[in-house]
Amino acid sequence: MSNIASPHAFVSTTEWSVRCELAAFYRLLAHFRMTDLIDTHISVRVPSAKDLFFINRYGVLFHEMKASDLVKIDINGDLVDECHNAGPINKAGFNIHSAIHGARHDAVCIVHTHTSAGMAVSAQEEGLLPITQHALKFYDCLSYHDYEGIALNPAECPRLVADLGSNMAMILRNHGLLAVGGSVAEAFNQIYFLERACQAQVAALAGGQPLRYPSKHICELTAKQSADEIRDNLHLLAWESALRLIDDQKSEYCS
Description:
CATH class: Alpha Beta
InterPro entries: Aldolase-II_Adducin_sf, Aldolase_II/adducin_N, Aldolase_II/adducin_N_sf
Oligomer: single chain
Family: Belongs to the aldolase class II family.
CATH architecture: 3-Layer(aba) Sandwich
Mean pLDDT: 92
Strand content: 5-15%
Helix content: 40-55%
Organism: Pseudomonas fluorescens
CATH superfamily: Class II aldolase/adducin N-terminal domain
Distance between the termini: 13 Å
Number of helices: 9
Shape: globular
Strand order of the largest sheet: 3-2-1-4-7-6-5
GO molecular function: actin filament binding
Domain Class II aldolase/adducin N-terminal: 20-202
């Protein structure tokens, strides 16, 4: 862990609250075993700032993430922290985030994971199958982006943005999962259910039995019902519930 000074004294109460919320999101990914050592990342827009974002300081494990471990950067991934917190950041990773943040101003929070189930489904030709209630949350609103190697090439960014379109979730072929949200809570909801849908699909395919598919009408209905839940802010209830799972860590991640 780092011995850098806390930026708490340098930032507003609102900004510190967002830092704490993002640190909690990192720890929840660890709680749900959705991490990949120091790789993968979550970013969130800085409140009331144009094209400024928080992202993890590269090298900090997700279960030990603190508000003071988050780094403020611009759309190019360059450090702009008032307290001069040291990087580094995963610039290859932020290539993905910067492209989406720059094109989608509704994307307040972006999360990218490399889970076993997510990578497995990303490698399957048909992608996410409409075989579970969780998968139907993404029916006709899930994007796909073909693998182009480690995301180091800025030329990939326009294709990434075009493939995501207006959707809130995307499978990066042969790579992993990506979700966006208008808030940290919404991004958490998207990645949690996408991950669970992938886990269920891997288990179902491993069973070796014929799969049962709901009708197109039921698939569409379930997708609409899931969208209604977001509009009714039920994802906020889920987020608050999830935070209670790590409530004993709050004093640490808010430091």
